[in-house]
Amino acid sequence: MKEKLKIIKIGGNVINDSEALTSFLIDFSKVNGLKILVHGGGKRATEIANDLGLQPKMVEGRRITDEANLEIVTMIYAGLLNKNIIGQLQKYRCNAIGLSGADANCIQAHKRIVIDVDYGFAGDVDAINNTAINVFLENDMIPVFCAITHDKKGQLLNTNADTIASEIAKGMSRDYEVELIYCFEKNGVLQNVNDETSVIEIINANLYKELKNNKVIAEGMLPKMENCFEALRKGVEKVIIGNPRVISDKNQKYTTLQL
Amino acid sequence: MKEKLKIIKIGGNVINDSEALTSFLIDFSKVNGLKILVHGGGKRATEIANDLGLQPKMVEGRRITDEANLEIVTMIYAGLLNKNIIGQLQKYRCNAIGLSGADANCIQAHKRIVIDVDYGFAGDVDAINNTAINVFLENDMIPVFCAITHDKKGQLLNTNADTIASEIAKGMSRDYEVELIYCFEKNGVLQNVNDETSVIEIINANLYKELKNNKVIAEGMLPKMENCFEALRKGVEKVIIGNPRVISDKNQKYTTLQL
Question: What domains are there in chain A, each with its CATH number?
Answer without folding.
Answer: 3-257 (3.40.1160.10)
